[in-house]
Amino acid sequence: MPLSRAAAAELLAEVPLFSHCSKRELATVAKLANEVRLPADHILMSEDARVAYSFFVLIEGAAEVRRGRRVVARLGPGDFFGELALILRRPRTATVTLTAPSRLLAISAHNFKPLLIESPEMQFKLLETLAERLTAATD
Ligand code: CMP
User: Fold this and answer.
1) Residue 61, class by beta-carbon neighbours within 10 Å (0-12 exposed, 13-18 middle, 19+ buried)?
2) Is the C-beta atom of 93 inside 6 A of ligand 1?
3) 86-113: pLDDT as tens digits
């Protein structure tokens, strides 16, 4: 379901990835993102999957990131995932499973790059999070 303008303003304001975006950038996000509600235990992406359809931002709920049998991260509201396969054009690096009923924004692979090109703020936030995840992974 595409976001209405009111829903977009309410949802996107809470998400750090979008917090420094201009009104124009937010309008673009609202146009390109779909809101989805999914139950606990739903698997959003599987490690090694060769086809990557979407990037996700968790609005409400929780998710677990697993590589092999190891849980490498637990994600909550405001966190995002699914960017690596889209940026690198490689298989998914991890399996992401919801651990609670969740509300998410889904941005298709097709729209992900145009969205980033439109917004240097989003590029920087993404980079910041990637750097944090890299630091955590190499600690
Ligand atoms: P992608 O490889 O497209 O699909 C799996 C996603 O899990 C990946 O993108 C990241 O968004 C996320 N992910 C992988 N490894 C980690 C990690 N160590 N910490 C947090 N998220 C991760």
Assistant:
1) buried
2) yes
3) 999 999 999 999 999 999 999 999 999 9
